[in-house]
Amino acid sequence: MAIQDGGVQAVTVGELLSTERFDLRIPHYQRPFSWRPETALRLVDDIREAQSDPVRSGTPYVLGAVILHQNDQSYEVVDGQQRLLTLRMIRCLLNGDVTPEFDPDPDTPVGQVWIALSRRLSVLVARERSALLEYIGSDCQAVLVITDDLDEAFRVFDSQNYRGKPLAPHDLLKAHHLREMRRESQSMKSAVVEAWESVADEDLDRLFSRYLYRIVNWSRSKPAPGFSTADIHAFKGIRIESVESPSARYHAAAQLAIPMLSRWDAQTGPNNHEIGRMRFQLDMPLAAGRPFFDMVSFMLEELKYIIREGFEGDRGQFSIYQLETLGTDKDSNIVEHANRGRYRYVSELYVGALLYFVNRFGTEHLNEARRILFRWAYAMRVRRLRVQYKSMDNWGSDGDSAFAIIRNAESWRALEQLDGLNVEPYRSGHEVGLVELITEKGQR
């Protein structure tokens, strides 16, 4: 047999976790629980956000699909184990059960998630805990697929997770911010989607994974191990309808005010690039919804500008060490050169730092920034025999990196402290031409 009659249905979390209805088992072939605490905490935050959203009132909050294989009277979890165990932990804590059915060893992923959830939920007062417990049990749902054929269960799992093109992090961000445009007209939503779909996936992936995500992390001296769906919270922005803190109100107001002020002073005010830099500060919160799409459009063009100006300036001396260029048309798409892969990571490091610098300080001192940031980024290529992703991540997230300096600087001149960087080559004869160029740029 295959999927049973009525085997695809929406069930509440309360029903799904009820031992009277479903005797859930984790089969031996399942991988161990592996969610990180931040992933579990985001699940709590997303549920609480849905609970407090007046627009969603009366609408179930769907937590995805769960695939079960019916084996006699029990149900083996084929897909959904991570969510189900996390939901069990949340419900235990909200019920005040400090002796759960599993052993929350602090050295295991389960124990680390249990501790993180305990801390997060402990701040809720009794009324909030009761309301959240009721909401999860009655208003949160899963799409349940039940089959008594294990092969069929795995085929459904395959079709859900591997066939076709998986959703990229930027796809999830698009869906999130479209939901935040619920009060916008349909024509506006259509225009936003059309503009988004006109951009190649590789360009969106490049913008977020190589530049925006790294800038957000490195400017805070945090590593950026790789942009995934677990990291999209960094770009979810502030919901205008639910701002509470003074800081959130300030940034939300700025998002609304800057375009209006620019139109008011259109004759003598800043140009479009300057307006974009004012509005979309990379280390500040962004308003959710349409401003996100405006930011993406602006940053795609800004990245092209930085790639062009960052390497063609200073008589084009940097261009032979450039990974990404533009086509013959200055407004064309970004093209990568596979034969320059040796400079991939340092080239991306340089472009990211210059993008962040211009975002903070504009272009008035671009020439000096080019010289200093090129030396800082490419010094890593000179000082190492091999440069790997981890090398770049350590270089960018260091507390004395260009990103940390730019974030904390009041003047562009703060970059000058990077001029004394040691650029001694790895060995004699290593990267001779690059060593000479870096040495020349160190001589003002």
TrEMBL record:
<feature type="domain" description="DUF7834">
    <location>
        <begin position="189"/>
        <end position="419"/>
    </location>
</feature>
<dbReference type="Pfam" id="PF25202">
    <property type="entry name" value="DUF7834"/>
</dbReference>
<protein>
    <recommendedName>
        <fullName>DUF262 domain-containing protein</fullName>
    </recommendedName>
</protein>
<feature type="domain" description="GmrSD restriction endonucleases N-terminal">
    <location>
        <begin position="14"/>
        <end position="178"/>
    </location>
</feature>
<dbReference type="InterPro" id="IPR004919">
    <property type="entry name" value="GmrSD_N"/>
</dbReference>
<dbReference type="Pfam" id="PF03235">
    <property type="entry name" value="GmrSD_N"/>
</dbReference>
<dbReference type="InterPro" id="IPR057156">
    <property type="entry name" value="DUF7834"/>
</dbReference>
